[in-house]
Amino acid sequence: MSERTVRASERRRESTDASLKQIGNIIYSQIQNREFPWIMMQSRSTDNIVYDPELGQYILGSRTIRRHSRNIRHIRPFTQMVWTAWFARELVHLRKTSTLREVYYSARGQADIEFKGQSESDGIITDLEVALNRPREDFNIFPEERSAIFGDLTIEYTVPGYEGRRMNLTDHPDGVMIGPAVTSSEFVETSADKVLVIEKGAMFTRLVEEKAHDKFNALLIHTAGQSPRSTRNIIHRLNKNHGLPVYIFTDGDPWGIHIAMVIISGSANAAHLRGLATPEGKWIGVWATDILDYKLPTENLTDNDLKRLKELKTDPRYKGDIWQREIDIFLKIGKKAELEAFSRYGLTYIVDEYLPAKLEAV
Predict the structure, then answer these.
(1) CATH number of the domain that 83 lies in?
(2) How far apart are CA 286 and CA 17, in angstroms?
């Protein structure tokens, strides 16, 4: 492993450790001074999440809250947060990783810290991110693996036991799962000149089989639905640090539209973080226009679909002409289509005809 990579990885680990230690020292000092300990952090309430048009994403506003152990309503989340900070520091010290699910069960099993469910545990981890202004990945806490990446990209691992090992992401025909090792790796070199992001596994597999990475000189990334944060971070890195344009290919429905937008402009849930959005990313389909132009097999939009489209239409992230036009057409025709709908023209049509036309148009 290069000396630069070693230094960067170790600096990040030491900085994270120092931040976690600091929060413990603050609480210890408060107790020494016979104070009820407390933690100050930005509010994550919906009225403090605002859209920043310059950044093109949601951010947290200036309002802060004090989580105070003197407040009976705060005792439970305060205790949960202190334990989570301790657990995170243990992970950093031991150079171990944990899934969000493991954090939840570790709290219940090791410390008798109860949560109403994993969603409450996940929320406390997010609070810790906000309090320390660091992503959970710095604490070595990751979601379950479900996304994948394939193409000519050589990575260099930084995780303990694999430091310095390199792998090309064409080595596995099913793609390489985007887990902690890939997320924290260094990107050494690539011949690709673009990134194709695909919502669904079946289409990702089809593109790998049809050698779309060679045909389009692209890296292929499968999001498995709404893209996990680790995957969005990799997309961001490939675009910002390596100059690769990003093209997003989703189902033609409001949920597919939103998958694309979260990659481009981030989400309200991650308003406290940077480095996840890719503002230069482009949604290339499936558009409502494509449903009409290609005469795709469709299904009727449900009441829930229609409600969601109307919500998207008023969301400030969707003010652009293409977004507004396509949302209006979806509402007008009342239809939606999946990526697989192109198979009516043959299994290779998507690679032979549709994607070349789309990429040329953008």
Answers:
(1) 1.10.10.10
(2) 44
